[in-house]
Amino acid sequence: MIKTLIVDDEVHAQEYLASLLEQYGDDKFQLIGTCGSVDEAIPVITKKKPDLVFMDIQMPGKTGIELFETIKDPDFSVVFTTAHKDYAIETINKVRPFDYLLKPIIGSNFKACLEKFLDFVEPKKEDQIKNENILSIHMENQIHFVQTKEILYLKANGSYTEVHREGHEPLLASKNLGQLLEKLSPKDFLRIHNKFVVNINKVVTWDRQDHFLKLINGEEISVAYRKSNELRRMM
Domain Response regulatory: where (predicted)? Predict the structure, then answer.
């Protein structure tokens, strides 16, 4: 089940989205709560860890965009809902949401959004190719298959993830960092920071004083202090 949260300051909008989710979710989406503000949503997100959040943008107090000033590297995908097209453009530039829906939300558009989300959390090709040595990178209009041994590190970029390989341009995957990490071998990959997952086999130096790793291509990646013990065990 895909854990889903609705955040909107208008109760009737919460109820309408909940009814659409029930109508079009095909028992694959579980509504874990509704919130009326960003401040109300933050502890719910922290505790219940949703996979998908439908977030209104213009609300009293903090806007939906401002949520990501508190939660900088979300492990969930967000779909912004707004009556203002200009806000939709602004969110794409600032937050990189999974999608956005313009109000008034039409049922067919909501259904298409759910289907789009299912396409990348339950891809058919991944069911056919279950190989921990291959990672499928879902991009907007195509899927790349890369060997995990080529990966240097992954970097969070809003609801998306940059996949960095030696000698290649980064690929921008339409999944968040946590979702990609689940598909990688824990023997080789470690989340060393909110923003970074590193391939341990590509590390040449660990600077414990300044808290960074140096990779074989010369790049330096920050290590969160709380990850030091876990990193030490793997190294």
Answer: 3-118
DSSP 8-state code for residue 23 = H
Residue 129 domain-assigned?
Answer: no
Cα gap 67→70, rounded to integer Å: 6
Answer yes or no: pTM beyond 0.70: no
Contact 2, 28 (CB under 8 A): yes
Domain with residue 81: its CATH number is 3.40.50.2300
Which tens digits make up the pLDDT trace of 131-166? 568 888 888 777 888 999 999 999 999 889 999 998
Angle at which helices 11-24 and 107-121 cross, to 10°: 60
Distance separating alpha carbons of residues 106 and 111, to the nearest angstrom: 9
**DSSP conformation class of 170:** P
Distance CA 213, CA 220 (A): 5
